[in-house]
């Protein structure tokens, strides 16, 4: 901001100093920001009060001990159930839980069948060779 010095006027030996005048052309306009504030609504996702069972332990057991491919699929559906529970999506959680439970039961049935057939074949082969 430039201030021009005031001219002095001499009147009978007395010096009168006039106040400085600011030229309007040199004043920069103030930047005015709009005062509107937009408030976004806050969405809070909370877990359901009664969570749908995810059968994750059962899925890991069937994956490691019974039938690996069906166990992997059941584990994926179990994790999907857990995610849906945390997001509060009850219908999706129920659907994923049902699929995980069915896959776990089928994998357990296949595992027990192969285990039983293995024992039967083992004893029949051993009895034949003795």
UniProtKB/TrEMBL annotation:
Subcellular location: Membrane
Keywords from the UniProt entry: Membrane, Transmembrane, Transmembrane helix
InterPro entries: CD225/Dispanin, CD225/Dispanin_fam
Transmembrane domains' residue ranges: 55-78, 99-126
Primary localization: membrane
Family per similarity comment: Belongs to the CD225/Dispanin family.
PANTHER family assigned to the protein according to its UniProt record, in alphabetical order: DISPANIN SUBFAMILY A MEMBER 2B-LIKE-RELATED, NG5
Protein name: Synapse differentiation-inducing gene protein 1-like
Organism: Cirrhinus molitorella (mud carp)
